[in-house]
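User: Run a structure prediction on this.
Assistant: Running it now.
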Amino acid sequence: MTSVAPDSGSRRRRLGVGAAIVLGLAAAAVTIGIGVVRTAVAPVATVPVVDESAAASSAHAWVHVTGAVRVPGVYAVDPSARVVDAVAAAGGFTEEADREAVNLARPVADGELLHVPVVGEATATGASDGRVNVNTADIGALDTLPRIGPALAARIVAWRDEHGRFTSVDDLLAVPGIGEAILEGLRELVTV
């Protein structure tokens, strides 16, 4: 029996097809890798959210940033984000912003309204009617309230940091050391 030497043209075609398949798979792997890297380093949100149904379905913390920021709006931030992250997502401070009135190190809460005042505007620790906002007040502002000393003010802030924003004034009852009598004395002096 005589052996037939393989056609060098068919061998080249097989090598060409194999090389094309390997090249296609390599290109797909590189594309997928670039997508994974971009997703890992991309900010969560860089523009205001317009579709509220998308906001409700996400696992991010959604923060409404208003006032003296470059692009006010609703932003998705990491659940462990701080005020500095929310302000950065909104494009940073404007020239008129009162940077000292905002605690940039404070953790943000899902559903929070974060207002950055302009210089001379009422600070975030107080409401326009003179009441103290227990969701934004620092220990010093809380300490000005009757029957609230520095220790109890610190417990209010610690409870807020651990559990999130107060949804009503009655939620203060969950803070160790605040009972019905203290709450009744605070009811007209605080807001959420």
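The chain is about 40% helix and 10% strand.
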